[in-house]
Amino acid sequence: MNRRRKVPRVDVVGIGINATDTIILLPHFPASDSKVELLSADTKPGGQVASAIVACQRWGLRTRYVGKIGDDPAGKFQVREMAREGVEAHWIKAANSSSQTSFILVDARTGERTVLWKRDPRVAIAPSDLRRHWLQGCRALLVDGHDTAASTQAARWARDERIPVIADLDNLYPGVKALLKCVDFPITSKDFPSRLTGEQNLLKSLPQIHAEFKCRLTTATLGSLGAIAWDGERFFLVRGFKVRAIDTTGAGDIFHAGFIYGFLQGWSFEVILEFSNAAAAFNCTAFGARGRIASLAEIDNLRRTAARSKRAFTSKQLLEASQTAIRKFPGLRPRSANNDK
After folding, report:
1. pLDDT of 120-156, one tens digit each?
2. Most CB contacts within 10 A, which of 15, 35, 40, 287?
3. Residue 63's beta-bridge partner residues?
């Protein structure tokens, strides 16, 4: 007789990248064949899924993280940080290998960053590394698009258990289309939709992805301009919040955490996206991927009081694009944030 292993119930499980980041603050981005004196260099924890899970934990969700590390000081650093945050972590350790590291160059004038990263192939998560019972009883699954075979395996298990799947997608890694077939809520960089579809117009590529992979909501982040999403019938354009940004590292990670938090609260898509934008904006006001994970009260205050960015698209553009998409992809009725897939 098969018996399901009992594991503690959690709200969200995250499976994906962790990284040890060295944040290098520069007075300006260096030109080719030049020398620039750095302003500071600090080592901080990061990684897309790992940082998002930490934010969810700080906001009061019950969290579980699954990641892979090497047997080096950076790996031990990751273990200590997750334990300090109170996250239930399951570590897969690769012998004689190095954990993922990043060197992040931050332009002090704008807060924009350039990421230089190195990943030992041995710390890639394989499907065989995963255990199905890690998903048992959770309310949402977050994966990234790096180790797509493992992410796809986890997403399939989640689909079998009717667990909503959120995916953080920024680059066109092999196997990402197979992953997307099991994703309810893809959240992408602004450039990912064009890379995937070949369509440069975001108002056309988002509906195309949504229709092809039968998503519940398809979202692209727009940096300081906020985010845009398509639900099969209309676009949601949520403008960004104006803050004094000093480092944009991790903004997307905290956006994903905000999306998960809002989704699990049962909020509407518009409120979820606004909350996510505000949380991401706050994180840009300090250094590092987890530099300023603001409290729920701080995020609520920013939503009520902060100035907003300009619109990435006009109302007319959104209306015309919606009408075009509905004609091109008929029969895909939108579902609310809390309808089952």
Report:
1. 999 999 999 999 999 998 999 999 999 999 999 999 9
2. 15
3. 12
Residue matched to tokens 């009520």: 304
Domain 12-18+47-99+122-328 has CATH 3.40.1190.20: yes
Question: Which of helix, strand or coil describes residue 267?
Answer: coil
Give the tens place of pLDDT for each residue, 248-291: 989 999 999 999 999 999 999 999 999 999 999 999 999 999 99
| Residue 75 bridge partners (DSSP) | none
Confidence of residue 337 (pLDDT cuts 50, 70, 90): low
pLDDT tens-digit readout, 173-226:
999 999 999 999 999 999 999 999 999 999 999 999 999 999 999 999 999 999
SS (H, E, C) 210-272: HHHHCCCCEEEECHHHCEEEECCCCEEEECCECCCCCCCCCHHHHHHHHHHHHHHHCCCHHHH
Backbone phi, psi, residue 168, to 5°: -95, 110
Q: By the 8 A CB rule, do 334 and 269 touch?
A: no
What are 285's two structure tokens? Answer: 């006001």
Separation of alpha carbons 162 and 168, rounded Å: 19
**Can you tell me the distance from the alpha carbon of 10 to that of 56, in angstroms, rounded to the nearest whole number?**
11
- Closest among 233, 229, 204, 234 to 217, alpha carbons compared: 229
pTM for the model stands at: 0.92
Residues 6+ apart with CB under 8 A from 318: 203, 234, 235, 237
Q: SS3 of 19, please?
A: strand
